[in-house]
Amino acid sequence: MKDRDVGCLKCGRKETIRAHLIPKVFCREVQVGKMHAAGVVGSNKFTPTQSGIFDKHILCAKCDGELGDLENYAAKKFRVIRSNFKNSKLGVHEMLSADSNKILRFAAGILWKYSIAAKDFGQIDLLGFDDEIKKYAYGEIEKPSFLDGCFFWLRLNEGSSDLFAYRAPIMMSIDGVNTFKFLLGGMLFFIKVDDKDLLLPQFKDLLLGNSLGIRFLLAPALLSEEFQEARKLAFSQGSLSDFLDKNGS
Ligand SMILES: [Zn+2]
Hints:
Elements: E1 19-22, H1 24-32, E2 53-55, H2 61-84, E3 91-95, H3 100-116, H4 130-137, E4 147-155, E5 167-174, E6 177-184, E7 187-193, E8 214-220, H5 225-236, H6 238-246
Parallel strand pairs: 4-8
Antiparallel strand pairs: 1-2, 3-8, 4-7, 5-6, 6-7
């Protein structure tokens, strides 16, 4: 149990700010387009927000801002992917102009923030790897060997760059390897936090830790658990239809 109100959990500064768990830029994207649904699917809660989801007790402005730079970088690259590959065939694609290390540090930053977030916001347990994940996110150490991963773009339809949901990190076991999954900017991430390697054939060639540019799998959203869950939430939870009605969607 982490003590609340102890100041910034990175540097100790007393004044903390509204640190975004789901960065504002990703929430706004889901709301602005013509979306089927939006929400934090992992915790089964729909959260209508344009300002992002934040925790006021974890980070100061400077430490939040450093992770924010990585988030903006990732958001920008994901927009380029959605624009450049919207008409492309399903399968593996490559973007050499993106820095895979920065994308992986972005993912590490998201995981670390969720590890220090309040329980209500979907706190995750980084299995004792917290400190190294934090240092790697902040660029203080090289990529630790227990950390690696990849992402799929869940495309709604050919020709579409629309987004349908975001999802906070949840832990799962893939082939006995502890892996966190989250969905931001249309990209479904699988990040292993485990000394064992992710050996599944569908992840081979995609691992960010191995490459300079990025490789990702373009996959159909409609078949994904994330899309099914988002759609279920959209229909079952009054809050979403109320929210969309009020906002004239
Ligand atoms: Zn700080």
